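Encode chain A's predicted structure.
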Amino acid sequence: MRPRRYLQLDVFADRPGAGNPLGVVLDAADLDTAAMQAFAAWTRLSKTIFFLPPTSAEADYRIRIFTPRRELPFAGHPSIGAAWAALETGLAPETGALVQECEAGLLPVSVEGRGADRLVRLRAPAARPQPVSAPARDLLAAVLAQLPLGPLPAALWNNGPAWWLVELEDADAVRALVPDLSAIDALSRASGAIGLAVFGLAVFGQAATNQAATDQAAMDQKHALAVRAFCPADDIPEDPVTGSANAAIGALLHAAGRFPGLHGRYIASQGRELGRDGRVTVELDATGDIWIGGQVQAVIAGSATW
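Encoded structure for chain A:
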């Protein structure tokens, strides 16, 4: 065994502690799948990534992505964190455009700025609605029975992982939700989904009655959607900030003709219920593709022996 460079990053965060933690193993070329999965389970983080030499001449770097229980072809906060780490550690050239290789293919990345102020944006794999079996529909009905639902019907979408996407009546309903994790676990396992994400539109312009409310209202106006994501089948009761789910929600809203924000761009808020305050930029480009973006903060830098 030898020491391997290891980072722990906070992704979709403008400061340490606000986003989603990510484990990063930089020297993983000689690790096999079982060793990677075991390390990801040991970290107990929602995602851990491993850097390997690219297999495509077009790629600047290559990663594999693991939850505590399985490998994923794509995930959002690991991909944003990977681009940041590749630049900070010299694994990729300091440039405004990169190409990430992962199990989902080659994904373009754009970068603005440097260090903690660097904004990383990545084009997510195309999200598509998925067919649902009759048993899964029954389990879905049990999950939805007590929820304050919004206008869009719940649907299963896949952009690497599969997500159940459920619109609630507004952002307040999202934040107040007490999920039935056992029912979500059963639904996820029956449908092959990584979990269930709820979202609701934020309501702006409410009168503030005191300074604290004024400050909160000002913060709320920075986002158009509130989002929460639950993945109990992967041993992640609630994910702090979830790029792939936000990308899938953006694709769903675009397909429904309801993409919010100005100029094809909005900000989603996720993580407050876990003591975080993540911000995910969701953008719709001219070709209809969804890009997700955010800032990354370094929290731990050292080595791991595995």
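The first strand starts at residue 3 and ends at 11.
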